[in-house]
Design a protein that fits this description.
about 290 residues, two-stranded antiparallel ribbon, Rossmann fold
């Protein structure tokens, strides 16, 4: 029999974009009245299920909330794909935070989820009490962004789950070593059948349009804004990095320990972008940081 804290609930909240309303779904673990709230936000093409292991591990200590960012998983899609950008995601998280009615929130963000977290934590009177950034920083390696953008919008369709899983595994090799069962879940979480019974990725392919519009001048302006946001963060911050990451460079990670919240840096060997947070060596520093 599952402990009550191990049971997961699927909830949703209605959010607003310039073009109307949309649903943001989230998984909730732990006691619903626990004032200690942890929000975990996934990467660009991933989903809330990425945090299942972390949520189970921390559900006795926290009410754990894992949203599907709009355009992914169980959440709705935006009418205007140009709005798949950090400002919209931040607005959605503010609405989610209001639903949770928590005075203080601990926050874990992987890649894109970390960008959202930096933006939120930089705002005056924000509720973020502790911040974990997983393989993300204000400077993004342009070649890594290009690598990711090449597959985000490709309309891949597969007859069998095995074919689809092999594809997901091929574009996720930077996650590092995992067991066959772990790879099965990593793949299954982001695959769904379409109306024709074909296996496709579980997100709106149009979310890549905003990435494709980024030119060098815009990228530079974004980095200036993100560094300003990072420097405005005052809460304790833990920075996780895959030692072989091509998105968060070692130089940027070190710079993040010297300015702004002066993050504590933990690196994981034989991992690129991004640590999946399913292995004990990656979970332990998060638990220690959040509970102490």
């Amino acid at each position: 029999m599952l402990r009550k804290s191990d049971q997961v609930r699927i909830e949703s909240v209605q959010c607003l974009s310039p073009d109307g309303l949309h649903k943001v779904a989230y998984k909730e673990w732990g006691e619903a009245d626990n004032p200690n709230v942890l929000v975990c936000v996934h990467g660009l093409t991933r989903v809330s299920d990425d945090f299942d292991v972390l949520a189970r591990k921390l559900s006795r200590d926290f009410r754990v909330i894992c949203p599907d960012v709009v355009g992914r998983g169980r959440s709705g899609w935006l009418k205007n794909p140009q709005n798949y950008q950090v400002p919209q995601y931040v607005a959605d998280m503010v609405t989610l935070f209001a639903r949770l009615k928590a005075e203080q929130i601990s926050y874990v963000g992987t890649s894109m989820g970390g960008m959202i977290g930096m933006a939120l934590a930089s705002l005056k009177d924000n509720p973020i009490h502790k911040l974990v950034l997983n393989d993300i920083g204000p400077n993004l390696n342009v070649s890594a962004v290009s690598r990711i953008s090449q597959y985000v919008s490709q309309p891949m369709r597969f007859i069998t789950f095995e074919e689809a899983a092999n594809y997901i595994r091929s574009i996720s090799v930077t996650f590092g070593e995992h067991t066959e069962d772990e790879w099965h879940k990593i793949c299954k979480d982001v695959l769904v059948k379409d109306k024709d019974g074909m296996w496709i990725r579980h997100y709106d392919l149009k979310l890549g349009m905003a990435m494709q519009a980024i030119n060098p001048d815009l990228a530079q302006a974004m980095q200036v804004m993100m560094w300003a946001a990072y420097d405005a963060i005052s809460c304790p911050t833990l920075l996780l990095r895959g030692a072989e990451s091509d998105l968060l460079t070692a130089d940027t990670a070190v710079e993040m320990t010297r300015r702004g919240p002066m993050a504590r840096l933990v690196q994981f060997e034989n991992v690129g972008h991004a640590p999946t947070l399913v292995h004990e060596d990656q979970l332990a520093p998060i638990k220690e940081f959040l509970l102490n």
